[in-house]
């Protein structure tokens, strides 16, 4: 009888673990799919902000239509790796953020850097070295 209880407990723990892992994977896939499906025609506006952490302070602006097109084109080149904890992704110094306001009323927050944040989730930015200068040039 005890053996049967242990088998049930192990089965339940495996099920719970599978649900948690599946949710985390699904959340990552959903964020990456949003980026893959991003179209300029669905965007109302893009707000850019930059904080240097130094004397120059911060800078904000809404991107032009041309800059928005370049951002969407650039986002389609980004290769995302696995999810990263916020602790691992924490950085000091300069940071930039794009808030994309969609025509349907939703918004998408992108925070590119060594690790790439989409809304509240950080990912490995696999081709950071290849694309970073293009983000700066926007």
Topology:
Blueprint: H1 2-36, E1 43-51, E2 58-62, H2 65-75, E3 80-84, H3 86-89, E4 95-102, E5 107-111, E6 115-118, E7 121-125, H4 128-137
Antiparallel strand pairs: 1-2, 1-4, 3-7, 4-5, 5-6, 6-7
Q: Main attributes?
A:
138 residues, alpha+beta, 7-stranded antiparallel β-sheet, 30% strand
Q: Mind telling me the C-alpha Rg?
A: 19 Å
Instruction: Indicate the overall shape.
Output: extended
The biggest beta sheet is recorded as: 7 strands, antiparallel
Beta-strand percentage?
25-35%
State the end-to-end CA separation.
67 Å
The total count of strands amounts to 7
What topology, given as strand order, has the largest sheet?
A: 2-1-4-5-6-7-3
Mean pLDDT: 79
- SS-based class: alpha+beta
Q: Which consecutive residue ranges, at least 5 long each, have pLDDT under 50?
A: 18-28
Order of helices and strands: HEEHEHEEEEH
As a percent range, the share of helical residues equals 40-55%
Please report the number of helical segments.
4
């Amino acid at each position: 009888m005890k053996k049967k209880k242990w088998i049930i407990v192990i089965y339940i723990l495996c099920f719970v673990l599978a649900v948690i892992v599946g949710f985390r994977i699904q959340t990552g896939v959903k964020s990456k799919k949003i980026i893959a499906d991003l179209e300029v025609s669905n965007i109302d506006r893009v707000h850019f902000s930059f904080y240097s952490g130094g004397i120059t302070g911060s800078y904000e602006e809404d991107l032009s239509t041309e800059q928005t097109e370049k951002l969407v084109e650039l986002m389609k080149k980004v290769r995302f790796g696995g999810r990263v904890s916020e602790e691992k992704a924490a950085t000091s110094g300069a940071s930039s953020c794009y808030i994309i306001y969609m025509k349907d009323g939703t918004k998408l927050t992108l925070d590119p850097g060594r690790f790439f944040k989409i809304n509240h989730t950080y990912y490995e930015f696999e081709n950071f070295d290849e694309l970073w200068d293009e983000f700066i040039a926007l």
